[in-house]
Write a structure and sequence with these properties.
two-stranded antiparallel ribbon, 6 strands, about 45% helix
Length: about 220
């Protein structure tokens, strides 16, 4: 979690715009982490490669980013790995994390919400997006999924370890999303633009709440 923490620290200490938490042209990475992002396969999977990364390569330093699919805290490997499951991405978890952590608008599941139907879950002919669409036809489930799923699917180009990909199981990834407001977007760049255009006030309030809570040493409930 060092990379997103150092990015937040730079915004705070240098008194920079909170928009950088969503869309920055720089980040903080060690040589090892930078290689992880840029290598098509694990750069330190073998013993030979692990020996290449000595202690000094673990020092994190500021790096300029050259693609808008990078930058901000949402698309860091730390966050993307934390919001995935072993060996598989989770658009639901990633969407819920963005809604909760960035917007402070967690979609509470209704008490009678069901899980993904077993018959749907085991249908290998369907993509995960198609399975969720079938699941979300149930009104009990739709209230949450229509908020979370578009956010999570916009991050599907990142695998469960946070590295970029264009296909999953031989299929081209569909990273399109549509908010309840009707705004359509695609991929991490589209998600960033939606946040900055429509959700910046929510982000600002969330940062204020978190900083105040940290300063007080407690949550902000009335009691």
């Amino acid at each position: 979690m060092v990379e997103p923490l150092l990015l937040f620290e730079s915004v705070q200490v240098e008194d920079r715009s909170i928009m950088l938490l969503v869309d920055s042209n720089y980040s903080y990475r060690s040589d090892e982490l930078q290689a992880w992002y840029t290598s098509p396969e694990s750069p330190f999977g073998s013993k030979e490669n692990r020996n290449r990364f000595s202690t000094h390569t673990q020092n994190f330093r500021k790096r300029i980013l050259h693609s808008r699919r990078e930058g901000g805290v949402i698309t860091t490997a730390a966050v993307l790995t934390m919001t995935a499951t072993p060996l598989r991405t989770s658009p639901i978890k990633r969407g819920a994390w963005v809604a909760t952590t960035i917007f402070n608008d967690p979609p509470p599941p209704p008490p009678d919400a069901g899980e993904l139907d077993e018959e749907i879950e085991e249908n290998r002919k369907l993509t995960f997006r198609q399975k969720l669409e079938m699941h979300s036809k149930d009104p009990r489930c739709n209230s949450c999924h229509r908020e979370m799923d578009p956010l999570g699917f916009s991050l599907e180009n990142y695998d469960w370890f946070g590295r970029w990909r264009t296909k999953s199981r031989g299929r081209t990834i569909d990273a399109k999303g549509k908010l309840p407001s009707g705004t359509e977007f695609e991929g991490p760049v589209g998600l960033r633009e939606v946040i900055l255009a429509e959700k910046l006030d929510d982000l600002a309030r969330q940062v204020i709440r978190k900083m105040l809570s940290y300063g007080l040493g407690r949550q902000l409930e009335y009691y």
